[in-house]
């Protein structure tokens, strides 16, 4: 059992249960992502210039969502394995900092992709 200096104990069975729950949720999410990606691929069959741009944005958004869920699962797994409250707080601080950095980069990337898609659509509609 893990014990911190305040006497807080996390039983091994609780850790095992939490870890199995995270693994099961991860598998369910991976299955969902597989089905979603297949659906997105099927919908792309009849793309025009605007649809192609929208597809690029959708793919990026889907990829970014998957990255965030991956990070959340990794965070959950790390928290389950944490030995004490201090390490939990450090993990949370690091996770939040990384997510904020990632969100900023992804927002810029989506904005650039959407702008390019609109420009491409406008170019393709010119006579």
TrEMBL record:
Pfam families according to UniProt: Phasin_2
- In Swiss-Prot or TrEMBL terms, this protein is called Phasin
Query: Where in this chain does the record put each Phasin domain?
Result: 31-124
What InterPro entries does the record point to?
Phasin, Phasin_subfam-2
Q: Can you name the source organism? A: Roseibium hamelinense
Q: Where is this region: Disordered?
A: 102-127
Taxonomically, which superkingdom? Bacteria
């Amino acid at each position: 059992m893990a014990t911190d200096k305040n006497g807080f104990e996390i039983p091994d069975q609780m850790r095992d249960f939490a870890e199995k729950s995270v693994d099961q949720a991860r598998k369910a999410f991976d299955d969902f992502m597989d089905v979603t990606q297949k659906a997105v691929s099927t919908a792309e069959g009849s793309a025009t210039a605007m649809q192609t741009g929208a597809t690029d944005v959708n793919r990026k958004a889907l990829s970014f969502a998957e990255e965030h869920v991956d990070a959340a699962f990794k965070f959950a797994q790390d928290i389950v394995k944490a030995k004490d409250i201090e390490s939990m707080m450090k993990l949370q601080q690091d996770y939040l900092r990384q997510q904020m950095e990632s969100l900023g980069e992804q927002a810029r990337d989506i904005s650039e992709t959407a702008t390019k898609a609109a420009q491409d659509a406008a170019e393709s509609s010119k006579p």
